[in-house]
Amino acid sequence: MKLKPVMNAIIGFAILLTVWQAVITIGKYDTVLFPPPLKVWEGIVSLIQDGTLFTHFQVSLYRFLAGYLSAVVAAIILGLIFGRLPSLWNVLDPVAQVIRPVSPIAWSPFIVLWFGIGDIPAIVIIFIAAFFPVLLSTVSAVRKVDQSYLKVAHNLEIKGIKLLTKIIFPAAFPYIANGLHIAVGTAWIFLVAGEMVGAQSGLGYLIIDARNSMRLDLVMAGILFIGISGLLLDKAVGLFETWINRQWGIRNN
């Protein structure tokens, strides 16, 4: 049974590669402008052999983890507090709903002025991208906590921080996990977008540099690696979610 998802993935990618090659062959596209799968594979191999791919990936991964993890911690803490203080959240919710739809890239002129050039601007962009999905899911999750848990906690005189960490957070975590998955996708997307704008390293910069050199095979190689990396990061969050649920005795649906 465990092999079935792997086989489905193999079949899906095989269909994608077949359609990709068929479009190039039937449409008679210039392989320089629309590189075929084999040429892109050769580009991936060349990037691996000279170490370019892993160098840029390490930079991007560091930026992602720094921004994502800090956003998750801050958003969960604030979400637990706001979820227990509905009057305060009713005041702050309109502000959050106004700021949330604004693309993190739109803040980049201010971010560069405030934090300079380097890793920090990319980390801040990732923080903004990941913060709101986790915050909103946490607030919503706290409000959905079964009231029987709170009654038991009240009877046992569990209050304050202990109530949040021992009762509310474990009960709300399955819903918070949805925000973690959404935040992974948005943060990874805006990391690459941020690196395309002003960075001199990372996977986004790799694509822009390859485009400037008219190496579209390397551009496509970078795109594929970004997609695969995003998938693996999402799977990593899923494994973490499963582990947490197992520690707390929560059954997965």
UniProtKB/TrEMBL annotation:
InterPro entries membership: MetI-like (IPR000515), MetI-like_sf (IPR035906)
Signal peptide residues on this chain, from the entry's feature table: none
BP-aspect Gene Ontology terms: alkanesulfonate transmembrane transport
Gene Ontology cellular component terms for the protein in this record: plasma membrane
CDD domains: TM_PBP2
Membrane topology: Multi-pass membrane protein
Domain of life of the organism encoding this protein: Bacteria
All copies of domain ABC transmembrane type-1, residue ranges: 57-237
Family the UniProt entry places it in: Belongs to the binding-protein-dependent transport system permease family.
Name listed for the protein in its UniProt record: ABC transporter permease
Source organism: Mesobacillus subterraneus
